[in-house]
Structure formats: structure tokens, C-alpha cells
Amino acid sequence: MEEKRQIVEKYFDMVYRLALSQTKNRETAEDVVQETFLRFLKTDRSFESDEHIKAWLIRVAINCSHSIFSSSWHKKTVPMTELKEEIPFETEEKGDVYYAVLELAPKYRAVIHLFYYEDMSIEEISKALKINQSTVKSQLSRGRKILRERLKGGYDFV
Length: 158
Known about the structure:
Elements: H1 2-23, H2 26-42, H3 50-69, H4 80-83, H5 92-102, H6 106-117, H7 122-129, H8 133-150
């Protein structure tokens, strides 16, 4: 049980940031985090490595987030303008980019968040989301293009 507690502590922030990027609502993100770690604590699954645990947690968090999108509750989320006061950023530009990412469709939001905010490689994202690497690359490309248009070229996405 101590090992599972350490894993929860290690990945809590990552799962929370991912859930927040997917749900756009602090309270809902907290629910996703709670459900994700509850499932982790209940599972009897044996994990091969830390990367396997991380990928499993990402997949469960995204699945929990998606189940929220299909619920009637999703229609009652907090507007993005209210979220801006809750998340501090070093610069206004970083905040602008983050909120533009939150406005992306979920499939683009997930890969952009994992690539830029969680520093995951395309291969790691592919494994975590169980999609082809070429799909990850195209979603990153399309997400960047949308961000470029929305931010009017003020930021450079590599």
C-alpha cells in the first residue's frame, strides 16, 4: 500500500493538470483525479514499469474526462474567464497560450498538453493514448495550426 501511495504522490500533479486541460473546470478535474486514483488503488493489475503506470493513469484520466463530456453535467461547466483567476502563470503570454490550448477539441488538447506541458515524446503519447505515432504527429500538427490561427501568429510552435 505504501508503494501505491508513493505513486499517487508522484503522478498526482500530472493527472490533475491533464484532467484540468480536458475538463476546463477545477471541480470536475478534481473528480476526474479522484476517480483515476480510486481505480488505480482498486486495480489488481501488475505494472511493468513506472512508464507503464504513467501511461495507464493518463489513459484512465482521459477516459474519465471523456465520460464527463457525454454527460449533461458537462453543459454546466464554468466559463474559461473564471478559470483564468485560478491558475497563475509566469507571464501573460503563457496564460494566453494555455487558455488557447483549453479551447481546442479534446483530441488536439490531449496531445498538445502531453507533448508541451508533460514533456512526453510522440512515442510515449502514442502508447499512453493507444493511437498510432502518425496520428499523434498529425494531431500535434493540426493543433499547432489551430493555435497559430487563434493566437494570430504571436507565438511560435515547434
